[in-house]
Amino acid sequence: MSEQTTGKYQVEKTEDEWRAELGEERYQVLRQAGTERAWTGELLDESRAGLYTCGACGAELFQAGTKFDSGCGWPSFYESVRPEAVELLEDTSLGMVRTEVRCATCGSHLGHVFPDGFGTPTGDRYCMNSLALDFTPADDADPA
Length: 144
Description:
alpha+beta; 1 helix; about 30% strand; Metal Binding Protein, Guanine Nucleotide Exchange Factor, Chain A; three-stranded antiparallel beta sheet; six-stranded antiparallel beta sheet
């Protein structure tokens, strides 16, 4: 990410703070809009009930019940926990127009959303990097 976040997000840190906190691999994906290699993410085959959160700030992003096997090599979801949980931005890198998905709480890059989630309730495929997410199984969640 080339632009600085100044007052736009609830969670803001300097890039040096993000780098120290996240480590190089996660920093490259979350803060520099990188992409992990397909079929390598540890959350790709995760199938337990639970909650996916931002790997940078912990904000709630996706319920496990919205995850589906899209065959693309990255964890895919058909909707976020709330429309305002994610920020959608036009991405014209790599010579194409895509829609980038960022965490609305800290501005970290999560992946992209595509209108090819065939057979899902929304028709969308939120194609996320495992490195951009943390997962908490439902049986590990704090009781209400």
